[in-house]
Amino acid sequence: MQISIVIPLLNEQESLIELHDWIVQVMQSNHFLYEIIFIDDGSVDGSWNTIRSLSEKNENVKGIRFLKNYGKSQALHAGFEAAEGEVVITMDADLQDNPEEIPELYNLIKQDNYHIVSGWKKKRYDSIITKNIPSKLFNWAARRTSGVKLHDFNCGLKAFNKDVVKNIEVSGEMHRYIPVLAKNAGFSNITEKVVQHQARKYGSTKFGAERFVNGFLDLITIWFVSKFGRQPMHLFGALGVIMFVVGFGFSIYLGIDKLFLNPTGRLITDRPQFYIALVAMVIGTQLFLAGFLGEIMVRSRKNDTRYTISKKINI
Percent of the chain at pLDDT above 70? Predict the structure, then answer.
């Protein structure tokens, strides 16, 4: 199979038939062998019934339904596990991503040997105040922190070599940072392509302003995990040793001063250096133990089930 199209969705019943027909038209005109995997992330409208109807008419349509809403990252994880195509395309279900971009994305992966091709919605039809400006700020911070030079981390339209999606873990709210996760896993041949962005035709966006706050928090998390996720002792242990050495140094100074230099002076407990030494050694010990426990957790952790699938179609 050449292409797997992975589409996470939440309450997008109105757009699914039109999106399906558009994708099929592109696939057939380019003679691609394909599959369309819809992941229903706990929709409460008729999205699942629509997916089931589409699968009865088109055997290339597959469906995964979550028991409840678990989030886009978990939906993509399930779709990646089910995908069988040599190239995996992700796109949103709201018709804002243009399926006409798929052939060129496919060629960039197969012919130019890129690991990831990320869409760049250079011209957007979203609100300038609530989406465009926060998105530019977020993308700037993501580029500076991650070292991945993409203009649009939030774009849902992306193409992946199959090896990428089978070797990365997408969890939490990390779907924005799949290129960063891929780079950390060794898939560094990443580029971007300007894609056409379209105004939402049905319904309203499922993401509010809070996604940018969460995005920045996730950015800090992924920076820490990429630097110290495998060896947390390198951070916490080093900080703990520094703090303990500082506290121990103050203790030695206080001891020498009291015993030899100024034995008749004020009590050690009346001096601020005593409390600095005490707090520094306690914090240093705690940081060292945090690093030690982190190392134990990293070595003993198991992959937990992050979502529950209630139904499947053609999978």
Answer: 88
